[in-house]
Amino acid sequence: MTKTYARLTPLADSLPATVPFVGPETQERSRGHAFAARLGANENTFGPSPKAIAAMSNAATDVWMYGDPENFDLRHALAAHHGIAPENILVGEGIDGILGYLGRLLIEPGDKVVTSQGAYPTFNYHVAGFGGVLGTVPYIDDHEDPNALIAKAAEVGAKLVYIANPDNPMGTWHSADTIQRMIDAVPDGCLLVLDEAYIEFAPEGTAPTLNIEDPRVIRMRTFSKAYGMAGARVGYAIAQAELITAFNKIRNHFGMCRISQAGALAALDDQPYLAEVVQNVAGARARIDQIARDNGLSTLPSATNFVAVDCGRDAGFAKAVLDQLIALDVFVRMPFAPPQNRCIRISAGRPDELDIFASALPKALAAARV
Amino acid sequence: MTKTYARLTPLADSLPATVPFVGPETQERSRGHAFAARLGANENTFGPSPKAIAAMSNAATDVWMYGDPENFDLRHALAAHHGIAPENILVGEGIDGILGYLGRLLIEPGDKVVTSQGAYPTFNYHVAGFGGVLGTVPYIDDHEDPNALIAKAAEVGAKLVYIANPDNPMGTWHSADTIQRMIDAVPDGCLLVLDEAYIEFAPEGTAPTLNIEDPRVIRMRTFSKAYGMAGARVGYAIAQAELITAFNKIRNHFGMCRISQAGALAALDDQPYLAEVVQNVAGARARIDQIARDNGLSTLPSATNFVAVDCGRDAGFAKAVLDQLIALDVFVRMPFAPPQNRCIRISAGRPDELDIFASALPKALAAARV
User: Fold this and answer.
1) Which residues lie closer than 8 Å to B31 by C-beta, 6 or more apart?
2) Segment A209-262, tens digit of pLDDT
3) B1 is a domain residue
């Protein structure tokens, strides 16, 4: 008889060894060469503030020290920035890390969770990882559907309901009023996860007023997108103090990279640079729209640093275009669920990268049309 | 009736909001000024290789990109370094992060886990965080007791049994032969967590041969100690491929800081610098021993980058000495459990820091003796 030493929990045993996304490096290794334009992961190719780069560079010398487990300086700077109290802010290892902690706090096997069909896979990954049962509602006109999400959450007695505003992967968004109505309609026993990873790119009037007394919502923000620091792994959550404190029961207190803490602090402090990036990204969105129209395609309006390009046919065609782009060294991704998967998703990159995309797209379309 | 929106799991609800360690920054904030010598967290004050610092500094520019979720380059470099396959290596957010993942994979409420009374609190934190029931055995002659640990694991039907070799907080160690006998005695249904965070400081013959086919043990290594990169959060585990793969079910795939990945790769590549640090740390240990003896105290032999100084009386006295040292701006910690808490634990820091310790210790002892 073979002996067993690592006895996984029944839940862990039942999970697939999976990954929400295949990284571009993995694709590069299997292709044998690098991408010419990295436009698939909604990374901010304009990069972080030079002040943040300098701060990280300087912090490298101090990396023999653990980071401050309280993230004191960053939480206080964020509190000042948002005009709220530090007790309402959790700093964690990216929104991904915080979603994992949130799942662990709230979800046990059989608990119900609601999201949109085709929304953020990493949220779904964590829900499944704690045994949650995911209910989904479809997008409506390429937007997440707040009413349907709330109705479904009430129907199944969900512990969590998730929405991203602006949305990923479509880039569409709702007004602050619509989202506030959604918050107001959250059923008793349910917490709304409002993922605002892309909020800095969105027009004024997209984010509801921060109300730290509201127990119905936890809001997720990040330094990965507008601040251009995806690789640093710094996200934060805003919620009622009682919920924020609960994370201290389970989080990896010494989990934050000290260099990343320093970088985020400096990035936050450089709001003029942020404004410049937001402007550059808006320019890149317009450029992607122009490139699409030059090729007879249309785009969806976007309040993010990416644009969904409607390839005008079915998912198979969009996938063929995507495969051709990748073969032409342009890293892009596409939505997972129909009918959104008629689109491909292009990050709002630098002009030189969009030149490469502009040159590759007609070739990719021609090849896909064969 | 007050409505409830965030329904914590019964387990999460039952956990205290706690932290395994209070960070030195927290103490500095409450004191109102900084420590003069940071000798409490076994950080490597000699710092990382200049090549690692340069690599992190350079990587700051690329931080707009997510890190490679497969940690491909680092896993392959570690595999070459250890002469094993990359499939047997998990890279994670420090040993702390990996211990959290391991707990999640194996522990559900009521599961039994065994460790030494007074051993690594963060391991205990994660076990409790998943509802595990911790059984402990005492140290024997200031060493962890492999036989007692195994006997206890068998007695309670433990899923995990933990030992650190060399040990923290005492710095003592067992030979590879003793640890191999422990591995050979692991009961069916139990996994040995062999925490080798300090192994690079230990004499030859402390680490058993790596046997990646052995399903009875998972070994933890880190860049936080000898490699001097505590703030970067890079640890790794070595185990049978099947167990390593299981982490892919639940880990935060995009959780690693890209800068830290680059730093670890460069640090690993600079083995001459590592050898130099190990030598410097040995010198610092000897110096701490001399300082202790100059003050009529003795030390425990250590195979780590810290030294347990036996204050020669009870825990209350050791605590008084520690408090006095902290009042004199020397950050130190002490073991938690009797009789080990008759000692204080001093990190093997730079000569300038040990000068400060040497000057503070007689004053602290005099004040504590009052």
Assistant:
1) none
2) 999 999 999 999 999 999 999 999 999 999 999 999 999 999 999 999 999 999
3) no
